[in-house]
Structures are given as structure tokens and as C-alpha cells.
Amino acid sequence: MELQLLTPEQWVLERKRLIEFAVRFGEKRLTVAAIHSLRRLSPDLLAKGSDGAVIAVARLGSRIVGLGFAAEAGEQSCIIVTHPEARGIGIGFAVMNAMMQQLGKLTCQVALDNVPSLTLFFRLGMKAVAISTGPTGKPTLRFEWSKEEAVRLAEQPL
After folding, report:
1. What is the H or E stretch that residue 28 is in?
2. How far apart are CA 114 and CA 134, in angstroms?
3. Alpha-helical regions (H) of the chain
4. Could you report the per-residue pLDDT of 130-155, keeping only the tens digit for each?
5. Cα 145 to Cα 35, 87, 108, 148, distances in angstroms
6. pTM surpassing 0.85?
7. Please, which residues have CB within 8 angstroms of residue 124's CB and are 6 or more apart in sequence?
């Protein structure tokens, strides 16, 4: 698997293909607002590093098998999509971990009926910090992670 954090130039070239991937394989779990955020993403935001946005793409050969997107460290939008034929082999974990390391902090919202995403976020060491009603009317958990908090916890004696 090849994992890549997109540059602004790569986003411009692959934008249409990646949006189609997210819509097709997001299995109607992505909110309309998240898809619109991805569609409206300015390439300039990818150049800002931790202050802007990040897109991580996983490929097997030339085939896209995973996509992650976060804007404003996930406060505006957080998306993770894995191709159905590539699930269960660590693609989502690698994509999310790359975004987390790039941004230094990340927030994501996950509906309680999305067990694979809930499992992934807990495996990544993200904390569920709040519950609310999401845009689709479902109970939704807010997950947060920061590099500073992860380092602090790792340094604490058992």
C-alpha cells in the first residue's frame, strides 16, 4: 500500500476522481455537508499544514483504496472512506493516522450505528468526549485526539 498526503497541485489533478470515490464508497454515511466541504476545498488550504486541511490517499498500485479528509483539524469536516474490497487490512488506520500526525490534533463526528468507524477511532487512541444528535438525526459521538495529549498520557507511569 502506498500512502500519500496530497499537495495542492495533486488535489487539483485528482479532485474529481477522489470526490467520486468518497460518494461511491462512503455508503451514505458521509453527510451532505462533508461532501460539500470536500467539493469546495481550496488547494491553498492544503498548503497551510496544521492550520488548513489535509487529504490522505491510500493506493494499491494505481487503484485508490482509501481516502481521508479533514478541514480545520476536523472541526469543519472529517471524512474517512475505505473501498469495500480493502476493508479490514489496516487502510483506514493508516489513512487516519497519517492525517492525525500531519495535523497534530483531530476531531471527528461518528454516528453510533457506524461500528467500524467507532472501532477504528478507539483503536487510534481517540477519545469520545461528547454525544449529540447528528445532522441525520442519529446519536453521534464527538471524538478528539491531540499529539500533546497522547504524549502526556504515554509519559504517565502505570
Report:
1. none
2. 12
3. 8-25, 32-39, 43-46, 91-103, 115-123, 147-155
4. 999 988 889 999 999 998 876 766 77
5. 23, 23, 9, 9
6. yes
7. 93, 96, 97, 100, 145
